[in-house]
Amino acid sequence: MKVIITGSSRGIGLALSRIALDQGHELLAVARPSGLTPELSALKEASQGRCRLAEADLRQPGAAGALSEAIGDWTAVDLLVNCAGILLEGATREDFTESFLVNAIAPFELTQAVLPKLKHSSNPRVVHLTSRMGSIADNSSGGHYAYRASKAALNMINRSLALDHPWLTSVVVHPGWVRTRMGGGNAPVEPADSAAGIWRLALALASGHSGRFFDYQGNELPW
Fold first, then answer.
1. What are the pLDDT tens digits along the chain (223 aa)?
2. How many other CB atoms are found less than 10 A from the CB of residue 148?
3. pTM, full prediction
4. Cα dist from 140 to 130, 135, 147, 154, 187, whole Å
5. In what order do the strands lie in the sheet with 2-6?
6. Is 127 left (phi over 0), alpha (psi -120 to 50) or beta?
7. C-beta of residue 137 within 8 angstroms of C-beta of residue 222
8. Which residue(s) pair with 213 in the sheet?
9. How far apart are CA 103 and CA 170, in angstroms?
10. DSSP per residue over 68-135, as a string?
11. How far apart are CA 103 and CA 128, in angstroms?
């Protein structure tokens, strides 16, 4: 397969990138400019040419163009994983703007940019990493206004993508509370375990799953 994973420099994105390469797939790893980590560099060096890197700041309008340029010679893309995201604790206008840019608008723009390549795949799939905190039905604690709203927006974007492109299987996935820079040291799920579950789900996706909301263990979640 030809796979694109955003947020590949660390955490879940790095773990997913490692799985993709370990299984022999070709990977475009997307990371922020100057965000290339030693771990991702080592993956690229060991990939025997199967890993290429694209630098893109998802807050900037040029991110989708950078992605399109990086995959210009690929005939098709089989799997896009929109993994990059941010969690801002505040509720200022700036917090909302940045949260929506990274967590909702960028995944939509990147997916739009890759659609022509996805359409040439025999089994095109898109996985957007969302959060249970974007579930309106599951919100029993309040707070986290910018983060919750941006993930709820991503969930709605995914639903529309699934309806507008019936040939594409597009889902949103809650990765669990993961022990990353975002999740913190008290989180119970290791990045490798979350990534393994997300990868299994991605490979098992069929058209009937499109537009739906799952967790990394494959359970369907309420909107």
1. 999 999 999 999 999 999 999 999 999 999 988 777 899 999 999 999 999 999 999 999 999 999 999 998 999 999 999 999 999 999 999 999 999 999 999 999 999 999 999 999 999 999 999 999 999 999 999 999 999 999 999 999 999 999 999 999 999 999 998 888 777 778 788 999 999 999 999 999 999 999 999 999 999 999 9
2. 20
3. 0.96
4. 18, 10, 15, 20, 19
5. 51-55, 26-31, 2-6, 79-82, 125-129, 169-174, 213-215
6. beta
7. yes
8. 172
9. 16
10. HHHTTT-S---EEEE---------SHHHHHHHHIIIIIHHHHHHHHHHHHHTTSSS-EEEEE--GGG-
11. 9
Residues shown for the chain: 223
Structure tokens at 67: 């992605």
Structure tokens at 121: 């795949």
Q: Name the token pair of 104.
A: 């909702």
The one-letter amino acid code at 141 reads S
Residue found under tokens 């969930």: 155
